[in-house]
Amino acid sequence: MLIGCEIELPLLPQDPERYRLNLLSLWEEIVEVLGAPWQIEFDAQTHGITGASQGSDHSLSAISYDASIVLLEFSLGPQENLAALSAEWERLSRPVRAVLARHGIRALGYGMQPEIDIHANGAYRTWCTPRGMYWYMPRRGWDHRWNLCRASTQPSIDVPINEAADTLNFLEKILPLVQPLCANSSIERWTADPDIAERRDFLGWSQLMGQSVDRNMIGMPVRPYKDMNDYLYQLFSLPLHTVTGDAGKAGKKARGIWLPAQPSLLEYIEKDAWEGILPDGQRIQVETKKPDWTIASIDWYCFRPARLRTRMKPVASWDALRAALQTNPSALLEKTFIEIRSIATQSPNEPLLPVALCLGLLRARPKLQQWVDQWTWEEIRQFATTKAFRFDAWSAKLGKTAYADVARTLVETVSSMMASDERHLLGGLHERMEKRVSPASLASKAVRSSRKDFLELVTYPAS
Question: In whole angstroms, what separates CA 87 from the centre of its chain?
Fold first, then answer.
């Protein structure tokens, strides 16, 4: 079982304006300290800096901005075990943190960037990462500004195709029960919310979506998936975010294109052409069936507790693609892995806690599946949308069971599945359960004392 992870760290520059004007020198220094083969990456459409990579091999670790230039994402390539993943995290994060410190930038182990005013006029353009896909977000019809400041730790674990749907259903149902233990984003603009422990929580985002086309990809699905075809039919029926096309010419990078009609994939393949818009506003015709046009990737928004990421087999023709989508879409899959989406970035001394926790949940699935099925899908869905992201979740009940007892079962079962040299990665999870607190509790208490106390709690050491 291969394990990867994305760890997003909010950045707090001492001088935000100077930081924005000196991104190139910062990334030049990061690439220099990491050494070959690291190189700065520029967006093919906006030409802005998006991060650094080790070349075209996407299985290797990379560092980039997430949705904003004050969210730094470490994408740790898949490893054989937790020890190797932890070593990769230290290998990359330590030198980068040292560079950030020299530039007067704090890296935070927290689920929100606590300072920027996302509601200020022009905030999205000021802080948005210069990557085409993020420049399209304002067109989606929901309060996209939250993307600028929320930070997650997103484990990814490979799973056999024939087990993917059942594994996904298990995680969709059990992850909301983890939420009160891992909440870590109660502070916005240096003010602690007295009620909400997890402001960045995907599970509570329905209030921001309104009638957006993305509203059906929020929180737990309304029902579990029957099988992989059922999952893919649902996904392929949802409006696309962008289509990234590759014209096949040597040296020409793929372009992400926004389709104003917002067709689903099933609709997209039925027309010969669609109107597309590039990040600079240029309107183009996307001729879907030209011989030299291939789909490099297709993106959907997904704010589920977990989602399936797939690599698909090459398809010989559009007719073959259409037939597979309509009859047996799972036959298109070459590889699958599951990405957990609902856990905030954790404290600096517990960076890989979400990875260890989720790996423990999957190892314990034979024990936990029957246990979690004592509650209906809808009972947990109600907990997810009304209680999981609140401080008072600890006093809530699931059916007749107190949440505190639910948390105890989860923590003790997961701990029992970890090897002796892995258990330290769970950090203070057992203490959180005993004291009925989360990192958000400690952070809120600290910021009410002073910003200094808060920053001492959540700031990563310089190296």
Answer: 21
